[in-house]
Amino acid sequence: MSARPVVLLTGASGVVGQSLLREVGEVELLAAARGPVEPGRASRVVRCDVSLPLLGLEPPAYRALAAEVDVVVHSAGLTEWGRPDEEYVPVNIEGTRRVAEFAELAGAPVHFMSTAFVAALLPGAGGTLSETNVTAPYVRSKLLAERVLADSGVPHTVFRPTNLIGDSLTGWTSRGQIVQLISDWICRGRAPFIPVHEGNRIDVVPQDLLSKAVLRAIEGGVTSGEFWVTYGPEAMDMTESLRICAEHAAARGRRLAPVPVIDPDDERARDLSGLPPLTRTYLSVLRDVSEVTRAGGGVLPTSMPELRDTLGVPKIADTDAYLRTLRFASGR
What we know:
- By secondary structure, this protein is an alpha/beta fold.
- It is built from 11 helices and 11 strands.
- The chain has helices at 15-20, 59-68, 89-106, 136-152, 178-187, 207-219, 238-251, 267-270, 277-295, 304-311, 318-329, and strands at 6-10, 28-33, 44-47, 71-74, 110-113, 156-161, 163-165, 194-195, 204-206, 224-229, 261-262.
């Protein structure tokens, strides 16, 4: 590998991809996407599609790209929750298989963006997921993609971030995700209660910490390992999360009344009839995410100490990053 490795970044238009394209690093990034993409500091954009054979390229272009690339960061994927299992196959599973084939031709290691929620499906998990859990098909697809890489024999790492929030210092993100949407709903006083299992941590991580970890791994020549990009036992609990929401609401001139926190298995958390549609949706998502967290042990596995010590990821309080995310999302 050259001193400045050439990195093919799949999913360059996504939240992880856009964060990586803003992060300073001693690599040359090629932004791979099938649609429009903000190239950031990428040297060029590569139009390709991981769901297609040869990534949708003509054979000569495919071989030329493989000859150029030293490393692949695979962040392309269908990340929306609630789709049927089969809809995740073309990109999340078969797309990963095609990326592994490309990497083998290129002689390049792969750094794969999975999810910390696979903790709920690994051997020894502390519980099971209900058949209706909105996250389950997505999480299954990521675990299957991990196995595709493992079976390929291609050198690779697996990064397992929890739910991403904005940049740790500015709160910036290329687009709001479920954490920002539900937090805004809470801050507007629209949550009648919050369903969370006792002992669960509310584990969210700034997107730039993931980007820094990935780039430092590439620069350090790391080609194997599983990295849980989570706060684990350091993560805030729901009481602290709601305190931050109340602080943010107060800064915007709203007084947020105390929000009851109840067990998701309580009948009150399951009977959502009579509530507004958006409230029913968000309460169901919170209940399902709590179920995933509980199945993963309530406190997610973490590699944060290792990421700080060996890859130079900065120590940032999740509470500070969460508040900055709320401020950015609200335009303040």
